[in-house]
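Worked example 2:
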Amino acid sequence: MFVVNSGFLYLKKINRMSSIFSSNFKNRNKGHFASIVKVALSDNIITEEEQKFIKRLSILLEIDPIEAEEIISNPNKHQINPPASEHKRLERLYDLSKIVLADAIADEAEIKLLKKFTFSLGFNEEKIDSIVEKAINLVQSGADEDEFMLAFK
């Protein structure tokens, strides 16, 4: 009987830890989403291309449609976690590149958006074109996240 209770307590602890990680993951995704929305709104207009991109991003980041609309309406209300390390910036660049190529086509408008978002992640402005080109090529070639990261080291 004690073993069952101990196992129950262990499972309860795992479930609690899982919900903490899940909550942190969701909050990080919301912050990431809010930062992309802020970049899109930097010129006070969300274009049709930006709107499509933002909608796709909200789906991939598993953000509830109602929450996504709230963030779009007021992105400053949500905590934004800018990536502090190169590793985190590359993770976000990988995610954004995958989103741009989700339909297997990266048109000119999407590339322009990706460059805008790449700059907002803190990459060197003079290298944005080459960084985005490399990111697109890596994702198109099927590189996974680890391969993507290694290619930028």
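The radius of gyration is 18 Å. Confidence is low (pLDDT under 50) at residues 1-21.
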